[in-house]
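Section handout, structural biology tutorial.
Before the tutorial, make sure you can parse a SMILES string by hand: atoms, branches in parentheses, ring closures as digits. In the record below the ligand is zinc ion, and the chain has 433 residues. In the tutorial you will relate the predicted structure tokens back to the input. Do not try to memorize them.
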Amino acid sequence: MLEAYHAIPQPPPPQTSDDPIESIIMAIMEWSDATHLAQFGTASLWPGYTFFSNHPKDFHGKPTSKAGFHQAYFASVMPYIFIQSNSSEYPQLPDTVRDSYRQQYGCDMPDEVYTHLKRELMHSIWELLLSEDFMDAYDNGIKIKCWDGIVRLVFPRFLYTGLITQRILLATIKSLGGRPCPRCFVEKKQISETGTVNDMKRRAQIRIDDHPRRMDIESARKAIFGNGNSLKGPSLNAILKKNSWVPTRNAFSKLDTIKTPFNLFTMFVPDLLHEVELGVAKAIIVHLICMLHSLKKTDEFDQRLVFYRYIATLMLTIPRFRQIPTFGRATICSFSHNVSELKHVAARDYEDILQCLLPVIEGLVPSHQGLIDKLCFELALWHGYAKLRMHTTSSIKLFRMATTNLCSTIRRFARETADIKTYELPRRRTSKG
Ligand SMILES: [Zn+2]
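Predicted structure of the complex:
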């Protein structure tokens, strides 16, 4: 955003009180997730949320500040099951699309055609949202009288977050393709090297929405719509597979104008909730619980996690999860049930578990205790850095170092604890029947 600010033109000195005295960036943070509206039935909504990152993080984090807006509702005719299984990443098409396809071609619509149509739908919606008026404001700024009475020339700029599947959809790349990252060209087989020097070099090579890329997409579209090639056919693979592109024109390419050069792949930012709290942190916590199951230590672990009333007690006794008190009204609620059962666990619960894990797991896995302590500490530290309200150059440096250390500890953990046989948690086994 600092770079974007330096790139915008400043207006000439104001002649009248209506003239802007400075140009500023309005950083628009887009976020979207399908929402299931009813306990029973299929009612659902897919709002596109807009936040302004000019607001401080703790301001737009509070629901009472009403800093977020439902800016659009994406087309969504979505079966209940899709939302339940968290695969609601695409706008859904009405069932009649399949019927029309069958009528026209005399066969069922292949899955890849359906997926392609859904992608096209999403980008067409964005094409509408990035209207001519918006593009005019984007290039030339829009005059706004701000709350302090000063007229400013405001230039909107984008950041996009949301589920990784949504970012994949908006980056127009293939989901879980050979190069699965919407931002860089890292290969699927290289993901395990995250945090190494080589990986850092690789991720610096960012995807670019340049002319050759757009020409590839155009040739792929010509192959489909002009020559009737299949979406999975070899001629399309030859053009798109190398970098995992899909044959959809990206609506955000529009933001790359002569006045405002823009690489759309720079706007995707990670989603801490889904990728860390419900991703890496969850996977590590679940695996540690599986290890405790194998070692028959879960009862002790749960007892440690559920409640204590005062921090003072926490200092005096060995804490167990059920003994940990509520910390702050909205920070950590006491663990009222056995954590190892992982019943109704949401992202915030994994966050709480992570923050209380270190003293609880102490002494439970004697054969690898040092390594597990190190892993839990580094994960909690990394998470702490990621959640900071504000970063400085030095905190970013420390954050990078924490990433490198955490990733190498995870690899070491995977190697060295392979001797402990782990199985799926009993609850998961039963739910699968
Ligand atoms: Zn990447």
